Amino acid sequence: MYKISKQFAFSASHILGGLPQEHPCSRLHGHNYVVTVHLRASQLNETGFVKDYRELDNVKKYIDETLDHRHLNDVLPFNPTAENMAKYLYDTFKADIPELYAVEVSETPKTTAIYEADSK
Questions:
Q1: Which residues form the domain of 67?
Q2: pTM of the full predicted structure?
Q3: CB of 11 within 8 A of CB of 31?
Q4: What's the CA gap between 63 and 20, in Å, rounded?
Q5: Which end of the chain is flanked by fewer CB atoms within 10 Å, N or C?
């Protein structure tokens, strides 16, 4: 199995609902997010790629136009946790990128949430 990944960065604010008032994430705050898309294929294409990285420009465009420098509570239809965002981005891009099998969303260099499709 061949695997590739590509990272995309954006900055945004959010407030996480459902937390106690004293929890710091229940207040307005922001992150410098890193989104990593993971692709795999059992065979390479005629060029020798899983997918040409330039074919992932639609991911960058979506992130830049929809998420970057936004208040995520205003643009996403769910509580904007990293876990929810990973699943949402997977669902958003899977139809256009059939090789996509996982999406990671990192809020800090030490934290990562990953949504990976069932291999069943």
A1: 2-116
A2: 0.94
A3: yes
A4: 30
A5: C
